[in-house]
Hints:
Blueprint: H1 31-43, E1 45-48, H2 54-67, E2 72-81, E3 84-90, E4 100-102, H3 109-115, H4 118-128, E5 132-140, E6 157-158, E7 164-169, E8 180-183, H5 208-221, E9 226-229, E10 236-240, E11 245-247, E12 259-266, E13 270-271, H6 273-276, E14 283-284, E15 290-291, H7 298-309
Parallel strand pairs: 5-15
Antiparallel strand pairs: 1-10, 2-3, 2-4, 4-5, 5-12, 6-13, 7-10, 7-12, 8-9, 8-11, 14-15
Amino acid sequence: MSQPRAAGYWSRFGGFWPDRVDGAEAPALSAEQAARFAHWRANGWVLIERAVDPSAIAALNRDVETLWTSRNPRIWVDYFEENARCTIPVEPRHRDINLKVVDLYGQLESARRVAFAPAILAFLRALFEREPMAFQSLYFRLGSQQPMHQDTAYVHVHPPMEFVGCWVALEDVRPGSGELEYYSGSHRVQEYLWDGVHKWMPRDHPDHDAYLAFLHEQARARGLRRVQFRPRAGDALVWHADLVHGGAAHIEAGATRRSLVTHFCPADREPGYFRDMRHSEKLVDASGAYYCYVKRWEAEHDESAKASRA
Length: 310
């Protein structure tokens, strides 16, 4: 179902205050914040160098390494095998598979320390003008090799433009590791509408390949620069919901690209899974930010049911 066109914004679906084109005033900003948001408006991304403390990076890396040597039914992975999508609890064999470990912040305090680093939250609070909420995360050990895309086609939030992605390097990223790539400035390419109406891609839509080709065509037509991101451990890249990005196809044998991607929306918004999946409540982190996640582990559902009956 579509929604009425939002007046005063670049996108018909609205967005945050930097997405306005009607001259509305920005919130009060420091000089450093003003420079970052000028860059955000023009390019659709912001690099926050040394955003995460090295001790937090080390703690998360240690915790993830234990996943490959033991079974943890609370932590799940998502990947494709023989053209079929697999979403199952993590197992030792998954260490060397190109996959995503989902929603680590829901189970690991070390993941929350990384996702909710003060420098990241400061930027998000200025952008959202209220508390941020982590609603999905993806841990990568290897490069994703995902085609260039916009998160708005696949990530459902209500309203659809009110979220961002945040990519944190958990090691120094080197060439040939399947680097994150993006078209700088691509958050302002022509808006793609599914069936001429929707911001989100309907399930198994036949125009998916045409959509991916459209993004490259738009980038070429505008002369946009394709960037390969090679940060240091602890650097964070925050990107606009419509920034075109993906994973470099070439990966050298044995190369890793450990990273944590977290999707954030304002705490008063809802991710799409609130409508049709079992999920946690909106939980408050010690930082003051919020988080929620899909409940995949059956025993967790049982625990919730027992708590509600108590």
